[in-house]
């Protein structure tokens, strides 16, 4: 086995280890993902993005490249809105896509992207479907929320008090019967007609500084509560700001994609993590 190439990047400080693996040869076990994402014994990240050809995985996708996304605890998720921006920028900079427009495969389906000259990326995230209502519990406080499916599950609770003050150190509770596969929990302030503030507690990760699918869910939920299904908004998260547009058929997410480092994993370390 040769050295394993990696890159470290982030989208609004939701950070990822990218593993280029065109032929799908890496044995990416949950234990290896969890070790890579650990901030003390690994590189540290909220998730792993394996860059693999759709054909190598036998995935039914028109997109040449598939984003094999894993959460920091090793679990698999359908989609990652911040990750797909970083993934798209990697494909262009590595010369694997000519850009600026192409599609990226994901477990939630193909996602058309546009990589802009300023390195930001716009992603067509597909429809954000309102699937009902449920409750999140933070420190004994019940917060009603709007359930939204953006390819992965979300529950968006809109609060009158400042979400910056919420204590999210412990995992909030939610209705496991309503969300048998788990859920990403967003806490939102509506600042004015077209600006939101959000914090998020991600399934399989914990609190992160941003969640792209979560920002789309937040805008869709805020529009739903205002009695409409289309509109645009900025969303401020602890890691920065993104722009979101939602209509009945599609949604778009625009935000930054940054690279921090690239290198090679130590082979002995990798083989010890099973
Ligand atoms: N941070 C991501 C979402 C990653 C997946 C999520 N934790 C899940 O399990 O559904 C984003 O930017 O969308």
Concise synopsis of the structure shown:
16% of the residues lie in helices and 43% in strands. It has 274 residues and is of the alpha+beta class.
Which key terms come to mind for this protein?
single chain, 274 residues, Diaminopimelate Epimerase, Chain A, domain 1, 2 domains, 5 helices, isomerase, EC 5.1.1.7, DAP_epimerase_AS, amino-acid biosynthesis
Describe the secondary structure blueprint for this structure.
Blueprint: E1 4-11, E2 14-20, H1 30-37, E3 47-53, H2 54-57, E4 65-71, H3 81-93, E5 101-105, E6 111-115, E7 121-124, E8 129-138, E9 141-149, E10 153-158, E11 173-174, E12 184-192, E13 195-202, E14 206-208, H4 212-225, E15 231-237, E16 240-246, E17 251-255, E18 258-265, H5 267-272
Parallel strand pairs: 2-3, 4-5, 10-12, 13-15
Antiparallel strand pairs: 1-2, 1-18, 3-4, 5-6, 6-7, 7-17, 8-9, 8-11, 9-10, 12-13, 13-14, 15-16, 16-17
Ligand LBFN2T5F is lined by residues 14, 47, 71, 77, 80-83, 152, 184, 202-205, 208, 211-213.
**CATH class bucket of the largest domain:** Alpha Beta
Unique ligands: the ligand N[C@@H](CCC[C@H](N)C(=O)O)C(=O)O
The CATH topology assignment of the largest domain is Diaminopimelate Epimerase, Chain A, domain 1
Please tell me what the overall shape is: globular
> How many β-strand stretches?
18
Radius of gyration: 18 Å
The second-level CATH architecture of the largest domain is Roll
Sketch the topology as an H/E string, one letter per element: EEHEHEHEEEEEEEEEEHEEEEH
Counting copies of identical and different chains, the oligomeric state is single chain
Considering the protein shown, what is the CATH homologous superfamily of the largest domain? Diaminopimelate Epimerase, Chain A, domain 1
Low-confidence stretches: none
Integer average pLDDT: 97
């Amino acid at each position: 086995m040769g050295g394993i190439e990696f890159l470290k990047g982030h989208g609004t400080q939701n950070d990822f280890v990218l593993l280029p693996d065109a032929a799908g040869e890496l044995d990416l076990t949950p234990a290896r993902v969890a070790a890579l994402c650990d901030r003390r014994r690994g590189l540290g990240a909220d998730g792993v993005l394996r860059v693999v050809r759709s054909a190598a995985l036998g995935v039914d996708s028109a997109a040449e490249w598939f984003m094999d996304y894993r959460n920091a605890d090793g679990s698999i998720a359908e989609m990652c809105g911040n990750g797909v921006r970083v993934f798209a920028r990697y494909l262009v900079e590595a010369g694997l896509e000519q850009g600026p427009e192409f599609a990226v495969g994901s477990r939630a389906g193909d996602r058309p992207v546009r990589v802009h000259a300023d390195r930001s990326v716009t992603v067509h995230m597909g429809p954000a479907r309102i699937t009902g209502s449920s409750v999140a519990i933070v420190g004994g406080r019940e917060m009603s929320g709007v359930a939204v499916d953006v390819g992965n599950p979300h529950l968006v609770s809109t609060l009158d008090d400042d979400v910056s003050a919420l204590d999210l150190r412990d995992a909030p509770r939610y209705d496991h019967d309503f969300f048998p596969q788990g859920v990403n929990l967003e806490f939102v302030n509506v600042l004015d007609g077209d600006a939101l503030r959000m914090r998020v507690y991600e399934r399989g990760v914990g609190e992160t500084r941003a969640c792209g699918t979560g920002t789309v869910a937040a805008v869709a939920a805020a529009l739903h509560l205002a009695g409409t299904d289309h509109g645009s908004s900025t969303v401020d998260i602890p890691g920065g700001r993104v722009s979101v547009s939602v209509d009945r058929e599609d949604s778009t997410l625009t935000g930054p994609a940054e690279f921090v480092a690239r290198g090679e994993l130590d082979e002995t370390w990798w083989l010890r993590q099973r």
